[in-house]
Amino acid sequence: MRKRSVLVVSPNPAIDMTYQLRELNLGLLNRAHDVYVNVGGKGINVAKFLASSDVDVHVLGWIGEKNASTIDDFIKSIGLRHAFIKVPGYTRMNIKIVESRPEQRITEINAPGFSVSGKQVDAFIGLIRERLRASDFLVLSGSLPVGAPPDFYRLLIEEAKAHGVKTVLDADGEALKLGIHALPNVIKPNLQEALRLLDKNVSLASLEGETLTRKACQLTLELLQKGVDIVALSMGKDGLCLGFKDQPNLLRLTPPSVQTVSTVGSGDTVVGALIYGLLHGLDLYGLGRFITAAGTATTLVQGSEVATVEQAEQLVDTIFTEWIPVEMLSI
Known about the structure:
Blueprint: E1 5-9, E2 14-21, E3 34-40, H1 42-51, E4 56-64, H2 68-77, E5 81-87, E6 92-99, E7 105-109, H3 118-132, E8 137-141, H4 152-162, E9 166-170, H5 173-179, E10 186-187, H6 191-197, H7 209-224, E11 230-234, E12 240-244, E13 249-254, H8 266-279, H9 284-298, H10 309-313, E14 320-325
Parallel strand pairs: 1-4, 1-8, 2-6, 4-5, 8-9, 9-10, 10-11
Antiparallel strand pairs: 2-3, 6-7, 11-12, 12-13, 13-14
């Protein structure tokens, strides 16, 4: 029996430097008590989670030739198969500042990174075509580098469909708006991304409690009605709303209260958990609990590392679930 295989596109990877300190004082000298350096970017974080399972993972992307060895060495160290096209310049180096006082807060500074040419885009599409035939899922995750066409993800979803490969899209802005036109099988927007995608003029500050739940579920239903098979809409610390197309109920999922170490990579872990759960035949209820547990588990690890499948499984029974009938949601 062929091992289940996932192709992860990480077009704009990063070297993440995470500084942990008690409190950030702007304009003054600050001293960190811990520093973590990891290779990340949304696609690579997805691959990290899947690498802890029985799924075969293959990462594709561009990397800057000037610090390519850092990415190569890390990917090899965690046993991921990969193929990167080297381009002039540096892979971006991002800074994440995690404060523990007065409350857990993260400040992120993301660098723009390298740019790609039309020839490099064509070479990348060719690389994907070569590997699609042996894949069960294609994951498209994260921002696009300068020079990549805004409909890059749409083109790749269409390629995957031509090969009978299911797709997962986790992006924002134009990449998400154009990509969804090709009807990916699964999307995982957060609340803000969903509001932008659907052109909703709603203040996030006005959403809490039952109002938050209702709005998240309405957005989830509206995205499903566009033709996407599965929508997992993240509400951050408040959990998720998960829906399958043509199902009579959505599932509202609430994680337990935990002592958060870092939220970096939590959403990417949810994407990895979605794929793992679907490959293992989980239903709506089982999938919802597992992906919420996975995202929560990653908030308990340091830096931009992500949780493992085993760590996620240990939290599944702590997830609170609530069925939301679709007929009760007016759009």
